[in-house]
Amino acid sequence: xxxxxxxxxxxxxxxxxxxxxxxxxxxxxxxxxxxxxxxxxxxxxxxxxxxxxxxxxxxxxxxxxxxxxxxxxxxxxxxxxxxxxxxxxxxxxxxxxxxxxxxxxxxxxxxxxxxxxxxxxxxxxxxxxxxxxxxxxxxxxxxxxxxxxxxxxxxxxxxxxxxxxxxxxxxxxxxxxxxxxxxxxxxxxxxxxxxxxxxxxxxxxxxxxxxxxxxxxxxxxxxxxxxxxxxxxxxxxxxxxxxxxxxxxxxxxxxxxxxxxxxxxxxxxxxxxxxxxxxxxxxxxxxxxxxxxxxxxxxx
Length: 300
Hints:
This protein is of the alpha+beta class. It has helices at residues 33-40, 47-52, 81-86, 93-97, 118-125, 150-160, 167-178, 187-196, 203-211, 223-237, 244-267, 273-285, 288-295, and strands spanning 2-6, 54-55, 62-63, 100-105, 108-113, 133-138. A hairpin with a 6-residue loop joins strand 2 (54-55) and strand 3 (62-63).
């Protein structure tokens, strides 16, 4: 099966100890069954440490997080002791793949980079490579998806990338084209919904719910980044739609996230939009419950 990715995908490399927001802190780190068996059979000096760090009491084995919710194998320099002592091939699937995500499409599988990763966010918001989704190789598996949203995604890209048209007009044209808009709820209702969601950082509840507006003016210097962010959300959520309902919810979620990002930027233009995008993705996209709560508002 063919594997496809946006042009910017090949620019990504984990920045490890240079990352200010390590993915090895604050997240439960699951261990897939194949890697778990490898860990159980480790006979190397570091193998005992690995075995003792695993909590296998639940349905899925995971690492016991240390103080500050740090992975027990993250050293003081922000580097992975498993890689240092055992090699990268001993990483579990989630550690090896993050921040990548995959979607099945009728032509093959698509891979992308998650916006919650600091380096991925920097690349995504600084590149027009979203317009070029190219074949990058082959991957295992068979094509399982019959429903195709790629043509609608391409149409969306065509609309939002036309920089001869003012950015706000491009957004309105996209809303009309697909019959989906964040204005399905008024700002007050969206703020109430944002206040009800779960958050990794409690301060983000007040931040999101206090600034959101579907009709906020986008700071001119942020418009290219907002365009690229919208393209990213569509690539991640629209590409894997399985029917028209999925498609509508994915478009609505994408439009809503772009408006929330614009609202955050307007609330404090001095703060880097990349950081706003990262926390938005971390809080909304990486919580299935939060994503579903927002998407369901567009299903009618």
